[in-house]
Automatic annotation (TrEMBL):
ATP binds at residues 195-202. GO terms for cellular component: endocytic vesicle; myosin complex; plasma membrane. Residues 701-723 are annotated as: Actin-binding. It comes from the Eukaryota. This is Myosin motor domain-containing protein. Residues 969-1061 form a coiled coil. It holds the Pfam family Myosin_head. The lineage of its organism: Eukaryota, Metazoa, Ecdysozoa, Nematoda, Chromadorea. Gene3D superfamilies: 1.10.10.820, 1.20.58.530, 3.30.70.1590, 6.10.220.10, Kinesin motor domain, Myosin S1 fragment, N-terminal, Myosin VI head, motor domain, U50 subdomain. The keyword Phosphoprotein applies. The keyword Cytoplasm applies. It is found in: Cytoplasm.
């Protein structure tokens, strides 16, 4: 007994010394302190010191090691600077052991979480690898540097026909997969390219078009080239420089590449959405208007420059508000004429945009699309006319007593140039801009027309509306012209590429960002439906048994936009129908109609100072899936109005310029989209109500999503690595934010157990049907697929058979695509293998048939032997019938001989003296009877003689038996006398035993009374437990509501801070973050926390700031019972939280279940970590005279192990069921010792202090152990089992 703790407990229990006094007076305390240090080190090394990813505001995640378990946080030491950071359990993730490991598919990592995802993307980006997979989703990180080899013709050829996963991740691989899916299934495919502005969406879309046209468009002739030439045209008229991207698409487009029945490119179609018309009139200081304006000024020849009346950008109001620099490529050697530069402007180098070079390329592309020189000049003339329109200014005047406006003297020239280029009279243009026509409702068939003068502000608004209408209709016409040049009359299917503006947020956000972000909400919802919701529904339908995951659903934000009557879009349209619409009234209506909506708030709740000064009726704070954006509603009504004054429309319908006249014709004469939606605004003669911009965009978006829902979708998530557009610079925080917004975290959780690839049994069977021989063709499709997979030798863990489909694990696309892309020869080879395998199976069946025949032969031989046996018995019967009379006498003689045995038995019952006198005579009689039996067998002896001898023998035997019975009666009388004497002695012995039984019954009664006392106590505890359970349920409901409210606040704070922090980092704005107050801190000195007895009791029990090691030390040394109980409770609570964290983030391939009390003993509902651990009542007999009563009442339990209920809470091997018992010794509320006895492994013995991380961490009063009938056992029963499994009695206390 060298254990110092055991010695301390033994002496303390016998001498009644207090622990505190004994520790100060005995040298064993020093040894105990040494044990504490060593145990603390061993626990740390075996417990929670491990590499993890911890959140960081700058890097996203940093690598560190867990060094302490706090009350609500984990303490993590960073490996880069050794700083200690505090982080919640929910945002800390385990890291892979090999940090240098780089994988193509993030689903191949050991741990699937945000930390490993960000680290793998960062590692690949540093190695110039911009693409990576998350299951079947491609993540693309913009390198901000030309990658010519990555998109070369050789690279295109290398990816053609390759399975997804055979080569490095690339957009070409995903495009090739989309093409093969279209070819295999006949279903249209779509690639959805999403991401923020500047993430590389446009370049990705161009790469897709290039890959498809290079591989399958060469036979299309000029159509292939026209498809590729659409991008320069659309970029010139639809792209512009923004603060985040020098070539930002300011419209959305869905480009369809159509294929004929031979799966070759036959044409295409471009659908466009929501052109940002407000950019035509105004831009931010560091942004530009559309590229075409600068291309025209920089690239036009001298004659064109003079005809169009062009000048430097600073001379045009529509350009001078933004940056005035021209863009050039580094390799461009053709300089721009210096006279065309604005004062103080220069050139900016960009790898994509080149104003002068792009203008020359634009001219070539327009010509290839079928436009002649006059049409091209009309297009550029309209562009120049818009610039001149912007230079028309107005001054107030008095027109007949009414306030009106006139052109300023400096605007006359601009008005003349604009009118000349637009093909209208300058006086008519002047009148149309300064007045508008009104028509009375009476006075003839159409009423009387009269002109109403416009104020200067109204005239400026009419001018800007005209410029936007002309440019918008010009853009629509250009897109329609492109579609005419790439017809698809013999289309069999198509592949669509969606490139639409990504989620946008600026310091000032207006109606354009409002619509763009609404579109991104819809697309994100489509992603959730297609990838997360429908995927899980398919798993459940096919019976795959994949665990469901939760994800953030943004449907409530979409409802905020779309809800009938109270949605923001409906309220905006309703405001426009009022006589005098006001943005303040609209904003107030939105707030009033959606009070307490989580997604909506007032601008003063923003974390940016620029927004907090905004009035509530001037802005909307909307919490999108990607962050919170504050919208200024001042121009919402004007930008949502898509109508022109009737006088302006009438003027341009009579233009002498053919293109202008065409733009303002009725919609029936304009080109239409395949769905019949017209590309221009209806004329005044054909409409009753002009649809608003928002309603038209909403309808277009609905058509787009409907189209996407009927295609096979492939997602490309483009990521912007930094906000400064610097090459190969990785901003971890920004990238992580974009990955979260893209839903990659939810995809990782789903793909941890999911199957992203699948094909139907019938589809696979149909693909091989043409090469199947008749003997295989009649197989069931499911059986054929099983045969095919058998011969391919695929790992059974990589796929799973559903009800109608085969499903593949992540990162197993190579096997999947290899199976689906076989050519005819390869298919025949696989069919031959299937045939061989079937022959093998049939040969085995033939062998089984042979074995069955052999078995049948052996059975026939066995039956022949039985027939022989039957013949033998028949012959015996015939012989016995012949000698029937002699047999009868023989049987009588044998029976008589048996009576001789009766004589012998009677002799044996006689007394020894009588037996000796009769033995000789009985022996002679037996010999005579034996001789009689032998005569019967001898056929020479006559039957009559035998009968006479038999009768004599009967008489002799009867006489002998009679005499023997008389002698036996005499002997029996003597025996009874002896028995009487023995009975007297027996009665005396029984009386003695009765006294002993009474004493034993009294002992049993005492034992049963003790058992009844335990049962009564159990019933009482159960009743109290049920009462507490009801109270606890009410508390849980309250706590649940509080937790939901807390999570809503946290989600609100996260969304509010997401955009604000990025805006602050991009433009230097100051974001005022609302920090939560820090929790109270307790400073622990060199002595134990319980050493200061003068400390207030409330402060001693506040353990939130105590370290894990301080709790352990206090448990060993505390003398205060309240402090000891509080420390134990907090100690075990932290262990439970940490074990839950390990279980949640464990790798599925090596997941280890923690030991605990059997699951059947736990409460039905989840235990609250802050739940009270008040000790439940126990029998007083357990509280007195116990060597450990100072720590708490000792209770012992025994329950069976059940594999069906214990897998969630016990550590079991994956193979083989286990049966046995679980023993637990509780010291107060906490487990002290634990034993596991099972049928197929050695007993497991655990002690507190040594095995804390593996033992039950559930307090006794929150389990159902005290309420289970027969679960509680006596101390002796537990100690007997403890000794039986070689556990040391009274194991060590917590070190």
């Amino acid at each position: 007994m060298n254990d110092p703790i055991y010695q301390i407990k033994l002496i303390a229990s016998t001498k009644r010394l207090s622990f505190h006094h004994f520790f100060k007076s005995h040298q064993i305390f020093k040894q105990l302190c040494k044990m504490e240090v060593s145990s603390r080190g061993s626990t740390a090394s075996n417990g929670f010191e491990r590499a993890v990813w911890a959140p960081d505001s700058q890097l996203g995640y940093v690598l560190g090691d867990i060094v302490d378990i706090g009350a609500e946080m984990l303490s993590i030491k960073r490996r880069d600077n050794q700083q200690i950071i505090q982080a919640s359990h929910d945002v800390v993730f385990p890291a892979d052991e090999n940090l240098e490991k780089v994988v193509d598919d993030n689903c191949s990592l050991m741990y699937l979480n945000e930390g490993t995802l960000l680290h793998n993307c960062h590692q690949r980006y540093e190695k110039k690898q911009i693409y990576t997979y998350v299951a079947n989703i491609l993540v693309s990180i913009n390198p901000y540097e030309p990658q010519r080899e990555l998109y070369s013709t050789e690279t295109i050829a290398s990816y053609r026909g390759k399975s997804l996963g055979q080569m490095a991740p690339h957009i070409y691989a995903l495009t090739d997969k989309a093409y093969r899916d279209m070819r295999r299934t006949g279903e249209a495919q779509s690639l959805i390219v999403s991401g923020e502005s500047g993430a590389g969406k446009t370049e990705s879309q161009k790469a897709v078009l290039k890959y498809l046209c290079e591989n399958w468009g060469k036979e299309a002739g000029p159509i292939q080239q026209r498809l590729l030439e659409t991008n320069p045209i659309l970029e010139a008229f639809g792209n512009a420089k923004t603060t985040r991207n020098n070539n930002s698409s300011r419209f959305g487009k869905f480009v369809e590449i159509h294929f004929n029945n031979k799966h070759l490119v036959t044409g295409g179609f471009v659908s466009h959405y929501l052109l940002e018309k407000s950019r035509i009139c105004t831009q931010a200081s560091n942004e530009r208007n559309y590229h075409i304006f600068y291309q025209l000024i920089a690239g036009a020849d001298d004659e064109m420059y003079k005809v169009f009346g062009l000048s430097s950008p600073d001379r045009f109001n529509y350009l001078k508000r933004g940056t005035l620099d021209f863009f050039v490529r580094p390799e461009n050697e053709k300089p721009i004429n210096k006279e065309r530069f604005a004062a103080g402007a220069s050139t900016s180098v960009d790898r994509i945009v080149d104003d002068a070079g792009d203008f020359a390329n634009l001219m070539r592309c327009l010509e290839k699309c079928g436009l002649d020189r006059p049409q091209i000049m009309q297009i550029f003339g309209i562009v120049a006319a818009i610039l001149h329109l912007g230079n028309i200014d107005f001054v107030a005047c008095n027109d007949g007593g009414k306030e009106g406006s006139n052109l300023t003297p400096g605007s006359e020239n601009s008005c003349g140039c604009a009118a000349r280029l637009l093909g209208i009279d300058d006086q008519q243009l002047r009148m149309a801009l300064t007045s508008r026509a009104m028509q009375t409702t009476r006075g003839g068939s159409k009423g009387t027309l009269y002109m109403v003068p416009l104020k200067p502000t109204e005239a400026l608004a009419a001018r800007d509306a005209l410029a936007k209408a002309i440019y918008s209709r010009l853009f629509d016409w250009i897109v329609a012209t492109i579609n005419k040049s790439i017809p698809f009359n013999d289309s069999h299917s198509y592949i669509g590429v969606l490139d639409i503006a990504g989620f946008e947020f600026f310091t000032i956000n207006s109606f354009e960002q409002f619509c763009i972000n609404y579109c991104n909400e819809k697309l994100q919802n489509f992603f959730n439906e297609r990838i997360l919701k429908q995927e899980q529904e398919l798993y459940e339908k096919e019976g795959l048994g994949v665990e469901k995951i939760t994800y953030v659903d943004n449907q409530d934000c979409i409802d905020l936009f779309e809800r009938r009557g109270t949605g923001m879009l409906d309220l905006l349209d309703e405001e426009m129908r009022l006589p005098k619409p006001l943005h303040t009234h609209f904003t107030t209506a939105v707030h009033d109609s959606n009070k307490k909506h989580f997604r909506l708030d007032a601008p003063r709740k923003s974390l940016l100072k620029e927004h907090r000064g905004m009035r509530d009726d001037d802005g909307l704070l909307v919490r999108h899936f990607a962050g919170t954006v504050c919208y200024e509603t001042a121009q919402f009504i004007e930008k949502n109005n898509d109508a022109l004054h009737a006088s302006l429309e009438a003027l341009f319908e009579a233009s002498s310029t053919p293109l202008i006249k065409l733009l303002f014709e009725t919609p029936q004469e304009m080109p239409a989209t395949p769905g019949g939606s017209l590309l221009s605004t209806p004329s005044r003669a054909k409409r009753l109500v002009v649809p608003s911009v928002g309603s038209k965009f909403r309808a277009q978006l609905a058509v787009l999503l409907e189209k996407l829902s009927h295609t096979g979708t492939h997602f490309v998530r483009c990521v912007k690595p930094n906000s400064s557009m610097s090459p190969w610079c990785f901003d971890g925080s920004s990238v992580l934010s974009q990955l979260r917004c893209a839903g990659m975290g939810s995809v990782l959780r789903l793909m941890q157990n999911g199957y992203p690839s699948r094909t139907g049994f019938s589809d696979l069977y149909t693909m091989y049907a043409s090469v199947l021989p008749p003997e295989i063709a009649r197989l069931d499709p499911r059986l054929f697929c099983k045969c095919l997979f058998r011969v391919l030798g695929l790992d059974n863990d990589d796929f799973k058979f559903g009800m109608t489909k085969i499903f593949f694990r992540p990162a197993k696309f190579a096997e999947f695509d290899q199976l689906l892309r076989q050519d005819v020869d390869a298919m025949k080879g696989l069919v031959d293998k299937v045939k061989t395998w079937l022959h093998t199976v049939r040969w085995r069946k033939a062998q089984y048939g042979v074995w069955s025949v052999i078995k049948l032969k052996n059975k026939l031989l066995y039956r022949a032997e039985q027939v022989t046996m039957m013949q033998k018995y028949a012959r015996g019967f015939l012989v016995r019938q012949k000698f029937l009379s002699r047999f009868a006498v023989y049987r009588k003689a044998v029976n008589l001989q048996t009576r001789g045995f009766e004589m012998k038995n009677l002799v044996s019952e006689l007394s020894p003296t009588s037996r000796k006198a009769w033995e000789a005579e009985v022996s002679e009689s037996e010999k005579a009877l034996e001789l009689l039996v032998n005569f019967c067998k001898d056929q020479n002896v006559e039957l009559d003689r035998i009968i006479v001898d038999y009768e004599k023998g009967v008489a002799h035997v009867d006489k002998m038996i009679s005499d023997l019975r008389g002698q036996l009666a005499a002997d029996e009388a003597a025996r009874l006398a002896e028995i009487e004497r023995k009975m007297v002695e027996e009665r005396e012995r029984e009386e003695k035993e009765q006294q002993e039984a009474i004493l034993k019954a009294q002992e049993v009664e005492r034992y049963e009374a003790k058992r009844r006392e335990m049962e009564a106590e159990r019933v009482r505890v159960e009743a109290e437990f049920q009462k507490r359970q009801a109270e606890e349920k009410a508390r849980e409901m309250t706590a649940l509501a509080e937790e939901q409210e807390k999570r809503a606040r946290e989600e609100q704070k996260r969304l509010d801070g997401l955009v604000a922090a990025r805006l602050a980092s991009e433009k230097g704005a100051q974001a005022t973050m609302i920090e939560s107050p820090a929790p109270p801190t307790i400073v622990i000195g060199s002595s134990t926390p319980s050493g200061n007895s003068s400390q207030p009791k409330r402060a001693k029990l506040d353990l939130a700031s105590w370290k894990y090691s301080d709790l352990r030390e206090t448990i060993n040394t505390a003398q205060d019972a309240d402090l000891l109980a509080a420390c134990k409770e907090e100690f075990h609570r932290r262990l439970r939280v940490y074990n839950g964290w390990k279980q949640k983030n464990a790798n599925d391939q090596a997941k280890e279940k923690p030991r605990a009390v059997p699951l059947a003993m736990k409460k039905k509902t989840e235990m609250n970590n802050n739940e009270s651990t008040e000790a439940s009542p126990v029998p007083k007999s357990y509280q007195a005279n116990h060597p450990m009563h100072i720590a708490g009442p000792q209770r012992y339990f025994k329950v069976p192990l059940s594999i069906g209920r214990n897998l969630g809470s016990m550590r079991f091997e994956k193979s083989g069921a286990q049966y046995g018992f679980w023993y637990g010794h509780f010291n107060g509320q906490w487990i002290q010792r634990q034993i596991e006895i099972s049928n197929n492994k050695a007993p497991v013995v655990l002690s507190a202090g040594r095995d804390d991380f593996e033992m039950c961490q559930v307090p006794l009063n929150v389990t159902q152990l005290p309420t289970l009938r027969g679960a509680e056992i006596l101390e002796d029963d537990f100690e007997a089992m403890w000794d039986h499994v070689n556990g040391k009695k009274q194991g060590a206390m917590i070190h």
